[in-house]
Amino acid sequence: MTLKIANAAYVITLDAQRRILSDGAVLVEDGRITRVGKTAELKDVPADQTIDATGCVITPAFVNGHMHISYAHAVRGNFPDDFVGRERLREVFRLQSAMTEQEEYATSLLAIAELVKNGTVTFVDPGSTKYVDACLQAYAEAGCRVITGISLIDTPGDLHLPCFPTDQALQRTREFVHRFDGKLDGRVRAWTMPFSPDTCSSELISGAKRLADELGTWMTVHHSGGWTASLRDTGALGSNVLLAHAAGIDDGEVELIADAGASVVVCPSTTQKEGGGLGTRKVPELRARGVAVGLGCDSANSSNFLDPVRAMHALAVGLKDGRRDARVISAEQVLEMATIDGARALGMQDQIGSIEVGKQADLVLFETRTAEWRSLLDPVNNLVYAADGRSVRTVVASGRVVVENGRVVFADEAALAEQVQHMGEDLLARTGARINRGRWPIV
Questions:
Q1: Which residues in the chain come in under a pLDDT of 70?
Q2: Using only C-alpha atoms, what is the Rg of the chain?
Q3: Helices and strands: H and E segment counts in the chain
Q4: Calpha distance 246→264 (Å, rounded)
Q5: 3-class SS at 142?
Q6: Is 145 helix (H, G, I), strand (E, B) or coil?
Q7: What DSSP string runs through 38-79?
Q8: In sequence order, what are the beta bridge partners of 388?
Q9: Are 302 and 270 in contact (CB under 8 A)?
Q10: C-alpha span between 325 and 321 (Å, rounded)
Q11: Spatial strand order in the sheet of 263-266
Q12: For the segment 98-154, what is each residue's pLDDT rounded down to a tens digit?
C-alpha cells in the first residue's frame, strides 16, 4: 500500500536540520516514510491513495509519555476543584478497582479516540490497566503504539492498588514482559513499572531496574523531588529509565538525572490544575544538560484533557510566567518535546518523532483554513500559541488513516461516549461514590 500526501502548506519535519518544507509532500510505502520533499518533486510518483493536503500543516504524530488511559473517562469531571492530591488519588483508584473488564475496554477505547483525534499515536500507560488482554483489542482497533506494564507496589497503602510481596511483584512483571512485549507487530512494548518510591521498597525499584536491564526493556516510575539521590544510590537510574512528572526537582537532581542518562516526562496541566505551580520548573535546565524531556497528559481526571497542543501551550506559557522570563522556552522547543524529544525519552527516536525517510508514517494534518490559524506566517508559533487539537483533520498511524475529517475511523465515537456515560453513572451508583454535580444547582 502506497500513500501520497501532497500540496501541504507546510511540512514540519523535526529532522536533524529542523526543516520546514513549504508546498510539501510525503510518500508512504508499507507503513514507512520513503520520500519527503516538495509537491512538485513527487508529482509523477504513483500511489494507491493520495491525500490532498492543501491548506494543511503536517507534523509528526505526537508522543504522550505519561497517560493513565484505562479508567478516567467513566468519572471525568466528578472531582471538584478542591478535591486534590492524595484524597483525589484514593478515590480515583477506588473507583477503578470496581471497574469490570468491559468497562475498562470501553473507557480505554474512548480515551484512545480522544488521544488519536488530537494527533497522538504513541503513549505510555504507566501500569494502571487491569484487563490488558481486553484493552489489547482497543489498541489493535485504533492502530496506536502503547508502552504498558503492571503497576508494582509492595508497601501497603491507601490507594486501592494491588500490593504483592517484592519477589512476587517482580515475577509478575517478568511474566508480563514475556507475554506482551512486541505484541501487535511490535506496536506494544512492555516495561517494568514500579508505581513510586513512597509505595515501593528500594528493593522493588532496584529489582525492577535490574529486570529491565536483563530483559532489554525500560522502566518508568512516578517521581518527584527528593527521591533522585536514593534512586541513584540503589542503582535505579539509567539510560533506560523514564521519570514521570519529576515535580519539584532541584539543580542537584537535574545533574543526577543527566549523569545517569535518564529521561523525564512532565505533565504541566496536571500540576497547574492542582495548584502545584509548574511542577517541573527545571525543564530548561534538564534540556540544557541533554536530558530527553517529553510531555504527558496524565489522565482525563487529572489534567482533564488529552490534547497535546494544549499541553504544549500550558508548558510554554506556564514556564514563561512562572519564571518571569519570556525567553526561558520557545514554541520550537515545546514542539520538540511533544515529538522527537518525546520519542527519545522513550528510546524510540529511530522509529518515530520526525518526518524522515525510514521512519514509521505517523503523521498529523492540521486544517489551517480557519480563523485561529491565520495569518499563517510561522506555523510552529501558530500551532503552539493559537491552535488546539480540534483543527486536526487527518491522522495517519503506520501509513493507515485512523482519523479522517476530524473523526476517528475505528469507532463510533458518539455511541461509545453514550456507553461510557451509562457505565460511569452505574459505577458511581454501585460504589456509593461522592457524585459532584458542581456548585450551582442543576434544575
A1: 278-279
A2: 21
A3: 14, 19
A4: 7
A5: helix
A6: strand
A7: EGGGGTT---SEEEE-BTEEEEEPEEES-B--SSGGGGTT-S
A8: none
A9: yes
A10: 7
A11: 188-190, 145-148, 120-124, 62-64, 293-295, 263-266, 241-247, 219-224
A12: 999 999 999 999 999 999 999 999 999 999 899 999 999 999 999 999 999 999 999
Non-local CB neighbours of 213 within 8 Å, separated by 6+ positions: 238, 240
Q: Of 320, 439, 442, 431, nearest to 97 (Cα)? A: 431
Q: Write out the H or E segment, with its range, that includes residue 376.
A: none
What's residue 279's pLDDT?
A: 60
Residue the block writes with cell 539510560: 239
Residues 6+ apart with CB under 8 A from 364: 58, 59, 60, 61, 62, 119, 392, 394, 395, 396
Q: For residues 126 and 151, give the distance between their C-alpha atoms in angstroms, rounded to a whole number.
A: 7
Q: Given this model, what pLDDT does residue 278 score?
A: 64
> Got the DSSP string for 275-340?
T-TTS-TTHHHHHHTT--EEE--B-TTTTS---HHHHHHHHHHHHHHHTT-TTSS-HHHHHHHHTH
Query: What is the model's pTM?
Result: 0.96
Instruction: For each of the domains in the chain, give its residue range(s) and CATH number, in order of start.
Output: 2-60+359-408 (2.30.40.10), 62-345 (3.20.20.140)
